[in-house]
Design brief:
single chain; 5-stranded mixed beta sheet; 4-stranded mixed beta sheet; 32% strand; globular
Length: 295
Amino acid sequence: MPHLLPYGRFSRSLLLMAVALLGMGQNGWGQWGHVAGKVLLDGEIPVLPPKVEPGSSSAKLCGQNEIPDYTFKVDPKTHGISDVFILIRQRPAKIHPDLEPIPRRPQKSPPKPTEKEPTQAALAERTLAETEKSDEPQGLVVNVKGCQFFPYTMIVRIGQPVRITSSDVVLHHIRPFYILNYGWGAMLAGPEDYSDVPQSSLKKPEPLPTLVTCDVYSHMESWWYVSDHPYHAITDAQGGFRIDNLPVGEHTLTIWHSRTGYIIKSLTVKIQNDTTTTLEPIKVPVARFDKKPKS
């Protein structure tokens, strides 16, 4: 019958479309998986000398008896190493829709008016309140306290605001040692002071984590990784890490720590749809942490 011919062509078109969609699924279009693992110390946990000796002038100025070496933290029960960067340095071709935009700030109520002259702290809070709108990126805050950075390690996405605050009574001058981005300097004159990192200095992804230090107290250090995508992690207090919603396929991980440099330069993982790929524990010999890398 003549009227069956168009219907047959239409059915064949639907069939071809379905096959094409299945093919796209097999190639990973719209498919996402996860990777998890642990980084463990292989050997006895060493006792490191303090960064600043007890009773020294720097320790006293910083309001501390001594400043311990915070660059190497190991959980005594699990031997998990914290502050290890788990990086995917090559931006994947696809980013999960929930991760593509930088996280946004929650909407907050405006500050209440006051009849008194605002203090520096109140002005800082007002500035934060004015910028913390739902249509602006979620910012990161680094606090300097006791001549230490908190957090010690962090991941910064391009376009994400970063604010450095101080809880110290002493002067700090903070600056990074970028490889590809422009440097900057942040003067913190005392408690409640703060400085916003210029967005013009966070335009390019860095190849490795960047040292951030203080020109006044040279023992201070923090490590930031600047990236143009969200697929990275930093190990927790037990050495664990997890990266969610990676596109299906093969990805190359770089395992890096501030004291060793590369732990593993290239580790290929295969991500399967709706599955968590759990890696074998990554064991790092204690000898790797005997001294800090030259670069």
